[in-house]
Amino acid sequence: MSDIERVGGALDVDQDLSFQQRQWRVQRVGWVVMVLIVLAALAGLLGPGPLSRSYAADPSGAVAVEFNRFERNSRQTELRVRAAGSAIQQGRVRLWIDVDYAAKLRVLSIAPEPVLVEAERDRLIYHFAATAGAAEVPITIHYEHLQFGSASGRIGIVAGPEVAVEQLVYP
Amino acid sequence: MDSILRGAAVYLFLMVVFRISGKRTLSQATTFDFLLLLIIAETTQEAMLDNDHSLTHAALLIITLVGLDIGLSLLKLRSRRIDRLLDDMPLVILQDGVPIAERMRKCRVDESDILEAARSRQGLERLDQIRFAVLERSGGITVIPRDQGQ
Q1: Which partner for A171 in A51, A119, A123, A148 could form a disulfide, CB atoms 3.0-4.6 Å apart?
Q2: Is the pLDDT confidence value at A1 over 60?
Q3: What's the gap in Å between the CA of A42 and the closest CA on chain B?
Q4: Is B58 helix (H, G, I), strand (E, B) or coil?
Q5: Partner B contacted by A14 (CB < 8 A)
Q6: DSSP string of A86-154, one letter each residue
Q7: What is the pLDDT of residues B51-60, one digit of tens each?
């Protein structure tokens, strides 16, 4: 038991001051790291927040998407799509989402509710009823990610422009 | 597989956080320490269970957590380095009635903590009645009175 120190000539204790000093240094570094993590989270680097808010629009402005660049797995969140009035055809806006991206999500609800959902080989097409002549059609998709890692997808208007969505999903 | 990874990730994460935060963080010295422990337990539970409430998932999680604990305790027995790394070491924070200020500050212990331990465990009234006070690995303080062994 050579590792046991005798302190003050009386107390046998498994004490190691140099280890203790190193440990305190590591702990201080650890505290700084924890503060940095909290700051990163406040800024939105670990989930929703100012730096996470992202906006993608096609140059013509016919379709725009708002989403969080940094998301967390299983967290309920939303993606806002705004389709310009020019996207309304025969009283409908037909919005598509590529099937690979859609497979990574669980869609909880869509407002307004689509009147029809069509499945194609590589995309899902949602039909929304829209008043002809409306300046803009806002569509909100409430969803959660089903897996972590990067999630990239495309969202567009049928026979119209599309935008890319790039997200990093934390576990 | 998911259950095991979740269990292991939570176990390792908690271990790192509590090693970084120091001995005293959850020593249950105050009522609030105890509350903090409850809140952390509740928070952890959500992340570990996710949406899987099956018996299999629970069983796998428990086996993972207990298994890791057994595995690490075997490692600790074999290697003193790992033992110190995972479980910390005791530290003398008062000797012959004199508090060792620098160590106490770094471990976030003050004289009132030592006196509290002295009162509750040994019925002592003053610091000068204490021969040694040791901050144990658990975060608790043990007090050895002066007249004992002298």
Answers
A1: A148
A2: no
A3: 19
A4: helix
A5: yes
A6: GG-BTTEEEEEEEHHHHTTEEEEEEESPPSEEEE-SSEEEEEEE--TT-SEEEEEEEEEESS-EEEEEE
A7: 888 999 999 9
Measured CA to CA, the distance from residue A15 to residue B91 in angstroms comes to 6
Q: What is the mean pLDDT of residues B89-97?
A: 93
Q: Does B131 touch chain A (CB under 8 A)?
A: yes
β strands within chain B, DSSP E: 91-95, 98-99, 130-135, 141-145
- Helical axes A17-43 vs B2-21, angle rounded to 10°: 120
- Residue B1 — very low, low, confident or very high, per pLDDT cuts 50/70/90? confident
pLDDT tens digits, one per residue of B11-37: 999 999 999 988 877 776 688 888 888
CA A82, distance to chain mean position in Å, is: 18
Tell me how far apart the alpha carbons of residues A167 and A151 are, in angstroms, rounded to a whole number.
Answer: 5
All residues of chain B having their beta carbon less than 8 Å from the beta carbon of residue A20 are: 89, 91, 103
3-class DSSP state of B105: helix
Indicate the burial class of B130 (C-beta count within 10 angstroms; 0-12, 13-18, 19 or more): buried
On whether the CB atoms of residues B87 and B76 are closer than 8 A, the answer is yes
Closest CA in chain B for residue A34: B17
Which two three-digit tokens encode residue B61?
């999680």
- Residue B97: exposure state from Cβ atoms within 10 A (0-12, 13-18, ≥19): middle
- Residue B7 in 3-state DSSP? helix
A36 token code pair = 């940095």
Contacts of B23 (CB under 8 A, 6+ apart): B88, B107, B135, B136, B137, B138, B139
Distances B53 to B3, B37, B68 between C-alpha atoms, Å? 11, 23, 22
**pLDDT, greater one: B2 or B90:** B90
- Given a cut of 50, whether residue B149 has pLDDT beyond it is no
Structure token pair of residue A8:
């003050």
Structure tokens that stand for A89 in this block: 């055809």
CB B150 within 8 A of CB A29: no
